[in-house]
């Protein structure tokens, strides 16, 4: 099992290296051209790829982290408030990707629209200190 997560703090990609270098270090067996293609699928083009990772916005960091999960081929995704800092097109892209995702997904969100867009086999809701299955 290969677990991947995107946390609320968006702790990835904060260093002085370029996004391309940071991504290549995180997925060492991937060619730079493949990394560029993968990042482009998440809306991160050449202007982003060559910037220092520390200069990325929170939304750009989120998209880079999601691209990294895809690049690593994770089969258990843990997403904690993944729509924070994303614009509407990025949220829609994320919803489509999650809806097509075939692995196990643990999604923590307050985003009702995302909850409706992503089809799951089981949903648990936490309210007033109680967990119920929906």
Q: How would you describe the overall organization of this protein?
A:
With 134 residues, the chain is α/β, with parallel strands linked by helices. 42% of the residues lie in helices and 16% in strands. It has 6 helices and 5 strands, in the order βααααβαβαββ. The chain has helices at residues 19-26, 32-41, 46-49, 58-72, 88-100, 112-117, and strands spanning 3-6, 76-80, 104-108, 124-127, 130-133. The strands form 2 sheets. A 3-stranded parallel sheet has the order 1-2-3, covered by helices on one side. Strands 4-5 form a two-stranded antiparallel ribbon. Helix 5 (88-100) links the parallel strand 2 and strand 3. The chain is elongated, with a radius of gyration of 15 Å. The mean pLDDT is 85.
